[in-house]
Amino acid sequence: MATLHPDMRILTEAQKHAYTGTTIQEQREAWGRYTASIAEPPPATMAVRDELLPATHHPTGHRVPVRIYTHARPSGAALIYMHGGGFMKGDLDSSDPIAWGFCDQTGATVVSVDYRLTPEHPYPAAFHDCLAVLRHLAAEAATLGIDPARIGVAGDSAGGHLAASLCLAARDGIAPPVKAQAVIYTVTGTDMTMPSYTENATGYGLTTAACHEYYRILLPRPEHQADPHARPAIVENLAGLPPAFVHSAEFDPVRDDGRLYASRLALSGVDVTYREARGMIHGFMRARFKGAGARAEYDAICAFLKERL
Fold it and tell me: Choosing a second label site near 243 at 20 to 30 A (CA), which of 149, 179, 253, 259?
């Protein structure tokens, strides 16, 4: 019988209505209530501002909303953070506690991306938005007070997918260099037949059925199935990618996506650290304010980013 870590009671209680709703709007509102119920505000000493960054790929002048967190004693590094939510939920508010925590513990300037969501904007909209932010940070580094050689990426769930995709784009010369990557309870576009999708199909918040639906909506066109930025899992050779911290939860449908990505990185000669949060579920970072175990998992991510950026 599976035994959840005691800290996960915080999440299971908060998530009782997190995955409810029949319409997209109802699902987004439920997600917003869930994330707000276990959030904490950033330190008063941290500067936080919202901006709109140019998206040069978009012919109609689309601009990407971001929230920028600046430490009282900035390190000069920058971190692009991409939130989870199945590519169809989440925003700057839902991801706020995770983003400001990275800034607080690493000293990096953190840029949280409010990328476009499905089903209104299927692939490659979110990827293009995140790519535009990376390009902007590199081009405007001096103005932003950051070192263009010290830009990292981090993301959880759908955001982990986007982080992995940005690293591939950087390796292949489509984007500026990325210094380090942290991908947390990530999805990578596998065929979802690995054991975790059966073992943890239901009962732990995120379900396997939801994972299938999220990807069905994200990738509506057949040609996307062969696109490595749409499905990083299909890339066999990951040589040349930046050092990685890959973090999974034991009781999570997407656990094996993290295991697969980490093993592929290692086999390709990439410097990778894999960590699995024992007894924990998808979303464990959100429990850090009330549980020492969840806080230790979050701290491990921050320690990696601080060291590598």
Answer: 253
**Phi, then psi, of 253 in degrees rounded to 5:** -55, -35
Residue 223 CA to residue 141 CA, distance in Å, equals 35
Catalytic residue among 71, 161, 229, 282: 282
Residue whose C-alpha is closest to residue 308's, from 217, 182, 187 = 182
| pLDDT tens sequence across 177-225 | 999 999 999 999 999 999 999 999 999 999 999 999 999 999 999 999 9
Cα separations in angstroms, 149 against 78, 138, 309: 9, 8, 9
Is residue 282 part of the annotated active site? The answer reads yes
Q: Which residue has the tokens 């320690």?
A: 303
Amino acid at 106: T
Q: Which of these, 203, 40, 218, 5, lies nearest to 125 by C-alpha position?
A: 218
Q: What tokens does 161 get?
A: 């997918």
Q: Exposed e or buried b for every residue in 101-111, given b needs 16+ CB within 10 A?
A: bbbbbbbbbbb
Domain boundaries, the chain: 8-308
Element spanning 292, H or E: helix 292-308
Catalytic residue among 91, 104, 252, 256: 252
Q: Say what the pTM is.
A: 0.97
Mean of pLDDT over the chain: 96
- CATH 3.40.1670.10 assigned to domain 8-308? The reply is no
Distance CA 128, CA 57 (A): 7
Helix axes 292-308, 96-106, angle to 10 degrees: 60
Instruction: Quote the strand ranges of the chain, DSSP E.
Output: 47-54, 63-70, 78-82, 109-113, 151-156, 181-184, 244-251, 272-281
- Determine the number of helices (DSSP H) and then strands (DSSP E) in the chain: 10, 8
- Is 157 part of the annotated catalytic residue set? yes
From 95, 157, 196, 248, the catalytic residue: 157
